[in-house]
């Protein structure tokens, strides 16, 4: 049993930094993100359905993403995504956090779906195929959502630059 956990951890270890970035994009709190990552890692090490090495990264990110969403739901005591405002859950804390760059603040101001896909692609360097697996959508959908998210981020950054001048 211990050897199996060690082998799994070795497969997951190269992806932990990216998973931490993903979790931080939900909470804007390194400690809370680390807690969710730890919980995700514990589940990953003990599950019966551990993926093959080539699918390990996308699978871990999917586990972390789902755990983050579950944690936010529990916090808000809501039962579905439609009635949960993910943007306000992170944007409020980001606005008051010192040390976050303009890009992080602009990212936090975006709707959840746009922020999520940008973090997976630009900060965690996931492929379109991996993002499609993580989000459960087609690759073409990933490409179009990513394009719209990049435009929205650019517009938000321009808006912020205009306010600061």
From TrEMBL:
GO biological process, one term: DNA-templated transcription initiation
UniProt keywords, alphabetically: Sigma factor, Transcription, Transcription regulation
Record field: transmembrane: none
UniProt xrefs under NCBIfam families: sigma70-ECF (TIGR02937)
Protein species of origin: Pseudidiomarina sediminum
Record carries keyword Transcription: yes
PANTHER family to which the protein is assigned, alphabetical: RNA POLYMERASE ECF-TYPE SIGMA FACTO, RNA POLYMERASE SIGMA FACTOR RFAY-RELATED
Top-rank taxon, per record: Bacteria
Family, per entry: Belongs to the sigma-70 factor family. ECF subfamily.
Domain RNA polymerase sigma factor 70 region 4 type: 102-153
Protein name: RNA polymerase sigma factor
Domain RNA polymerase sigma-70 region: 22-77
One Gene Ontology term of the molecular function aspect: sigma factor activity
Family matches, as InterPro entries: RNA_pol_sigma-70-like, RNA_pol_sigma-70_dom, RNA_pol_sigma70_r2, RNA_pol_sigma70_r4_t2, RNA_pol_sigma_r2, RNA_pol_sigma_r3/r4-like, WH-like_DNA-bd_sf
